[in-house]
Write a structure and sequence with these properties.
Layout lengths: L2 H12 L3 H5 L3 H31 L6 E5 L2 E5 L4 H37 L7 H7 L5 H27 L22 H8 L1 H37 L6 H13 L2 H11 L6 H8 L11 H28 L4 H9 L4 H29 L2 H5 L20 H11 L3 H25 L1 H4 L6
Antiparallel strand pairs: 1-2
Length: 437
């Protein structure tokens, strides 16, 4: 009796659909055979070239060649198009392989049913199960395919570019061919003086920025929330509404306003300081002041968000704990240190880690305000307030250094992933199921 499932599996392994025909599922078998035939026809015609394109990245570059007595323009291979098209075809092939495996499993399972004396499901019943038992998987298939081609494939492409010499102005296809260079981009980033000096300094500022931006918004939001929550403060709804207004204004508008406010020559801030007899400050032109300014402006954006979160967290702390502390004669600072802060951290530690990771990649706060400036000749395509992510943006769109930008993107991912995972594993909210009383 075991032979039915084994025979059906072998037949489906030969060609998806044969096993279904053997199991007397004729319509399903024919559908599978058609899909198999179309898939084989497509991949026989396209897969070899896709693999060739990925492996070689092209062999003929665009240029002028003599054909007899004439000089004609010869269209060359576009390395990047070959790479992208190759990746798409390979992903389609992996989907086809998955379909192939599912067809074999389907034939095997239905063969087992026949061995048990159970009649196999009709085509209408099998199709109906897509909207019944397996309905969640059916509905998830469409976004899954979208994620596969619109998210995962671009990520793979971005990683692959780091291992090529795709960098302007000399290696721009089709006038030039892109080649595989292995880890050379990474070694150049760390060993060539101009690149390594820029990388380490931008990385250091990125970490400093992430720490400062996280601390100021987190504790600033907590402070404002605690002040508004004080029993002696009246019109609490008014204060909450007032302090949330900066968050309601689009970041682009706020950044443009702040850029004009802190303009070194004509900005209102410097004009008011001049009235007080204070010399003009280069808020956006002096490297130190520019870094101070971006942290200050980021606090303007971030404190309202943290404040709203803190309102919810503070409302969950039992008032009995504060009353007991008052009876024991605890000072306000002692109550904050022993009651408020531990409970706030317990709830918000994962959010704090997420804010820190987000600030490492906080493109808007830097680029919209300073554009990464002030510029400096010491850095390679970067300014004094550039983060790794804004430097990556400039390398990609402004300077066509795609391989270096890709390598930096990979490094950013490992930095954020390592810090986030390690920090989250150390939090009480991960280690403890219930809060320690």
């Amino acid at each position: 009796m075991r032979r039915m499932s084994l025979t059906a599996s072998i037949m489906s392994l030969i060609a998806p659909g044969l096993g279904q025909l053997y199991n007397r599922q004729f319509i399903k078998g024919l559908v599978f055979l058609v899909i198999d035939a179309l898939g084989l026809w497509y991949f026989i015609n396209n897969l070899p070239r896709a693999v060739w394109g990925i492996v070689t990245l092209g062999e003929q570059k665009q240029g002028m060649q003599k054909v007899g007595k004439l000089t004609v323009m010869v269209a060359g291979d576009h390395s990047i198009q070959l790479l992208v098209q190759g990746l798409i075809i390979v992903i389609f092939f992996l989907i086809f392989v998955w379909f192939y495996a599912q067809a074999v499993l389907d034939a095997y399972r239905n063969g087992i049913l026949r061995e048990s004396g159970v009649k196999t499901a009709s085509f209408s019943k099998s199709a109906g199960s897509l909207f019944d038992k397996t309905f969640p998987y059916t509905m998830l298939a469409v976004p899954a395919i979208g994620i596969l081609f619109l998210t995962i494939m671009p990520i793979i492409f971005g990683i692959i570019i780091a291992f090529t010499n795709f960098s302007g102005p000399n290696v721009i296809p089709p006038s030039a061919l892109v080649d595989w260079v292995g880890f050379k981009t990474f070694t150049d980033l760390f060993t060539l003086k101009t690149w390594s000096y820029t990388f380490w300094n931008v990385l250091l500022w990125t970490v400093e920025w992430a720490i400062l931006a996280t601390i100021t918004t987190y504790f600033g939001g907590l402070l404002v929330a605690m002040l508004v929550q004080q029993p002696r403060v009246k019109f609490k709804k008014f204060w909450r509404t007032l302090f949330i207004v900066p968050f309601a204004i689009p970041a682009l508008c706020s950044a443009l306003i702040m850029n004009n406010l802190f303009n070194g020559e004509f900005g209102p801030v410097n004009q008011y300081l001049a009235m007080l007899g204070i010399e003009k400050i280069g808020w956006l032109t002096n490297p130190h002041w520019a870094r101070f300014t971006v942290v200050l402006v980021n606090s303007w954006y971030g404190i309202p968000v943290t404040m709203m979160m803190m309102f919810g967290v503070l409302s969950t702390i039992p008032k009995d704990l504060y009353e007991a502390a008052d009876v024991d004669g605890a000072s306000p600072f002692q109550k904050f240190r022993s009651i408020t802060m531990p409970r706030v951290l317990f709830v918000t530690a994962p959010v704090l880690i997420a804010q820190f990771a987000g600030n490492i990649n906080n493109f808007n706060s830097i680029y919209l305000l300073t554009g990464g400036d002030p510029k400096t000749g010491e850095y390679q395509f970067a300014g004094k307030t550039d983060l790794l992510v804004t430097w990556l943006y400039k390398l990609t769109l402004d300077n066509a250094k795609y391989n270096f930008a890709s390598a930096i993107g990979i490094i950013i991912f490992f930095i954020i992933a390592s810090i986030s995972i390690y920090s989250y594993l150390q939090t009480k909210s991960f280690k403890e199921e219930d809060m320690v009383q």
